């Protein structure tokens, strides 16, 4: 943990005036972005983000500083998301944020978003943690409480499946081009 994380955590744990606000300012937008990509809708992401911060506030004394705060918050988000999903609550994967490298290529973004939603949940979560949120494999493995080798496999498998799906989506375009010539 960094000195900044320790300071924010101490302010948050002690109930210091502004402690929660500083904690939220540091982690809120990143957590919301992760929740948004996990859930697929703004409303669900907002609800999940609030639940995570409430759970963090209620369980702050149990936080062990072996992992980073971001790792801990993402772990809470994943477990809460799975619990909501298992209860059948509204978790529509209808609007994913843009993940395409080329921000102007709407077709690519839509295709990638569609392909991401088609991935099995375990592969999508692993891919989002490592490739979108920038966690190291070790950190993602800690968040999911699985071996590092498993997370590496899941990310690799997600990439392979995304490439397959995106390739299939691109086939009609290639056929059009070849027919036009």
Give a summary of the structure in a few sentences.
With 181 residues, the protein is mainly alpha-helical. The chain has helices spanning 3-14, 19-39, 42-58, 69-86, 106-118, 121-132, 137-144, 148-180.
Would you give an account of this structure?
The protein has 181 residues and is mainly α. Helices cover 74% and strands 0% of the residues. It is built from eight helices and no strands. The protein has helices at residues 3-14, 19-39, 42-58, 69-86, 106-118, 121-132, 137-144, 148-180. Helix 3 (42-58) crosses helix 4. The chain is globular and about 55 Å long. Mean pLDDT is 79; it is low at 89-104.
Helix and strand element order:
HHHHHHHH
What percent of residues adopt helix (DSSP H or I)?
over 70%
Outline type: globular
Average pLDDT score: 79
| Total number of strands | 0
Count of DSSP helices? 8
Structural class: mainly alpha
Distance between the termini: 59 Å
Taken as a percent bin, the fraction of beta residues is under 5%
Largest sheet: none
Rounded to an integer in angstroms, the radius of gyration calculated over CA atoms is 19 Å
User: Which consecutive residue ranges, at least 5 long each, have pLDDT under 50?
Assistant: 89-104
Mind sketching the topology for me?
Blueprint: H1 3-14, H2 19-39, H3 42-58, H4 69-86, H5 106-118, H6 121-132, H7 137-144, H8 148-180
Helix pairs in contact: 1-2, 2-3, 2-4, 3-4, 4-7, 5-8, 6-8, 7-8
Features:
mainly alpha, 0% strand, globular, single chain, 8 helices
